[in-house]
Write a structure and sequence with these properties.
mainly alpha, ABC transporter involved in vitamin B12 uptake, BtuC, 16 helices, 0% strand
């Protein structure tokens, strides 16, 4: 009798493992990153049908340059949303940094020093957000909506309706020119370096594990020894610095500093992050997914421009993408639950981990 019980016990673990093996190929095929890669291929094919110039080096430079500011700002926003917070003030910090840069340059301050001061302004703006959210315990949605208006208002106070130009040639060349002999913009190099750094921190260090843990359950993370308030404050400070850097890059690309630079970019930043597979509720996401989302948005916008689609309809497309990015993961989870019930009412094995999820 004992031999029979031992045989039954030995057979039971094989059931979930077999289920896991059956699900593994489907899970690999269903990875969000692979879906985005397929979408990019489809958009590339559609672009070649729209215009023969779509695959040219010059168009690639235009395609990537147009989204580099939002791509750069999407990197820290990814970590903030994984930590179950949000920063809506990035576009106005970009505008404020542009206004400060123009004001200082017009006042005769050396440009290299101007850039350093602008980055400090970004850090202070991010620190304000972080203290109000992490230390005061206020909702990040409300706080950053308030600083969205605050930073834009400060930019208007500094520059008003004035536009500052006549920047040095080396500065404007960096903004819109490419590496000599290649179609690769200098700004893409900046994004690549930052993306590699954010990928490493997010997916290969203890800091990344803590960010995922906080996004999953901040109370459990706190009891595990994570300094949640300090971590979230640091994330907002980094977001402010990177938004200020994006303001410098946008000013160089436009060769003009204006208080209204960056208006409306927050929607695109959030769309990129969520389209990249980051869960709006926190605790899940990958930097590679966000990188693919950047080029998905870039290819879509470029194809629509070549097709003569107006900016209003392009905004509609971005809005629809944002809705799809939020609803698609929900319906995918519901479909998986239904599939599990149909297969015998079993839930996925405890060892199964969704793509982009880190178990601390």
């Amino acid at each position: 009798m004992s031999e029979e019980r031992a045989a039954v016990a030995a057979e039971q673990p094989a059931v979930p493992s077999a289920l896991a093996r059956r699900r593994a190929p489907l899970a690999a095929l269903a990875r969000w990153e692979l879906l985005l890669l397929l979408i990019i291929v489809i958009l590339t094919w559609a672009g070649t049908q729209i215009s023969k110039y779509f695959l040219t080096g010059a168009n690639f430079a235009n395609l990537t340059s147009a989204v580099m500011e939002v791509a750069i700002m999407a990197l820290p926003s990814t970590l903030i949303i994984i930590a179950a917070e949000i920063d809506l003030s990035v576009e106005s910090m970009l505008g404020l940094s542009s206004a400060v840069l123009g004001f200082l340059w017009a006042a005769g301050v050396p440009l290299q020093l101007d850039i350093g001061i602008v980055l400090v302004v970004g850090a202070l703006g991010g620190l304000l957000n972080g203290l109000l959210v992490a230390r005061a315990g206020l909702p990040s949605l409300v706080v950053t909506l308030g600083t969205l208006a605050l930073f834009r208002g400060l930019a208007q106070v500094i520059l008003g309706t004035n536009a500052i130009s006549s920047f040095p040639a080396w500065f404007t060349t960096f903004g819109f020119d490419s590496i000599p002999g290649t179609p690769v913009p200098w700004t893409l190099v900046v994004f690549a370096v930052l993306a590699a750094a954010f990928w490493y921190v997010t997916h290969a260090t203890w800091v990344g594990r803590q960010i995922f843990a906080v996004g999953k359950n901040k109370d459990a993370a706190r009891y595990s020894g994570v300094d949640v308030a300090t971590l979230k404050t640091a994330l907002f400070v980094v977001s402010g610095i990177i938004a200020a850097l994006a303001g410098v890059i946008l000013t160089a690309r436009f060769s003009s500093a204006r208080a209204d630079n960056g208006t409306g970019l927050t929607l695109t930043v959030v769309t990129i992050v969520l389209l990249g597979g980051v869960d709006i509720n926190g605790g899940k996401g990958t930097i590679p997914g966000v990188i693919l989302a950047v080029f998905t948005i870039a290819a879509l916008q470029n194809a629509m421009r070549l097709a003569g689609v107006s900016s209003e309809y392009q905004a509609v497309a971005i809005g629809l993408l944002l809705i799809v990015s939020v609803t698609a993961p929900y319906f995918a989870r519901q479909a998986r639950l239904v599939s599990d019930r149909v297969r015998g009412g079993r839930h996925p094995p405890a060892t199964a981990v969704d793509p982009g999820e880190v178990i601390p």
